[in-house]
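Entry details:
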Amino acid sequence: MKQKSDLLKKEDKGDLNRAREYALKFLEYRERSEQEIRKRMAKKEYDGRLIKETIEFLKNHNLLNDRRFARMWTESRLRRNYGRWKVQADLNEKGIDREIIEEVLRESYSNVDEIQIALDLIQKKWPFLKEGNDAPLRRVSDFLKRRGFSFEVIAEAIRQQY
């Protein structure tokens, strides 16, 4: 009987090592949220216990940190000129805790002029638009909305541009 239980322990360790390797490989490309790791491993049909142990291992070795992920994601989206609402929606979708999202957005957007970013996007995408040309305003508004800007930012950017 003892040999059978030893064999099961060895099998469990093998499964755990494979689960860890899979998660580490998934983390090689970019930082991930805990939920992303959990979903990806579940999709590959890893056992719930293995997923939990793997996530704990990653956290204990500082390889998985939702706060760090949220900061990196936010900075990446800021460089690509996305508005606060889009970043918030992305982080929610990735399973980041609401308090972490609020803290990271407050820190990251504290010195950001979203209206200026929206104006720069308008001028880049529609350099031909001048005062009095109202036809494409809806397109401009829809574009900025898809980029994650609030109604207030969109309205002010359009007001300043036209």
Observations:
- The two ends are 82 Å apart (CA to CA).
